[in-house]
Amino acid sequence: MPSLALTDRHIKTLKPTGHRVDHFDRRVTGLDLRLAASGRKTWCVFFRVNRRLRRMTLGQYPAVTLQDARTRARQVLAKVALHATDPAAHRLETRHGATVADLADEYLTRHAKSHKKSWPEDQRIITRELLPH
User: Fold this and answer.
1) What is the pLDDT of residues 24-57, one digit of tens each?
2) 23 and 71 within one domain
3) Other C-beta atoms within 10 Å of 108: how many?
4) Alpha-carbon distance 37 to 29, whole Å?
């Protein structure tokens, strides 16, 4: 889809076509309004990290306005340009939280070693029985 100078008026008139359609903004490179077949309008920003094309969702229209989407897209693109990091991957890591190995290590250091004489047995069970699975 060619890029357009998106306006609030134009966005409000967009209707679903039966398949997903991307509308790219001409003012902010990489900013995309995805119109789903259901009619849902979602803001995304595309960027490259280590030559890999990545996409990050910014929010849904109209909760996130055109001006807010442009501001957020510029912030994401600036982070990528300055730090060469992937903000989408960072967001995904924080969403998933700790792993079982992280929780087991925290249990051993914060509870078992300080409160139990049999903590080596706990460590053995975790290492041999829990973590391999």
Assistant:
1) 999 999 999 999 999 999 999 999 888 889 899 9
2) yes
3) 18
4) 24
Phi first, then psi: what are they for 56, rounded to 5°? -130, 130
Complete DSSP assignment for 33-99: EEE-TTS-EEEEEEEEETTEEEEEEEEEETTS-HHHHHHHHHHHHHHHHHH---HHHHHHHHHH---
Q: Which residue range is the domain that position 116 belongs to?
A: 100-130
Phi, psi (deg, nearest 5) at residue 23: -120, 110
Residue closest to 45 by CA, chosen among 34, 32, 35, 36: 32
- The number of distinct structural domains making up the chain is 2
- 26 and 59 housed in the same domain: yes
Domain co-membership, 13 together with 40: yes
pTM over 0.85: no
Give φ, ψ of 88 to 5 degrees: -65, -40
Kindly state the helix (H) or strand (E) to which residue 107 belongs, with its residue range: helix 100-107
